[in-house]
Amino acid sequence: MKLSSLNLGDRFYLDHNDPDLKRFGVIINKGVGSILVKWEKHKTRDVDGSIVEKKGYKQRIARETEVSV
Question: How many Å separate Cα 22 from the centre of its chain?
Answer without folding.
Answer: 9
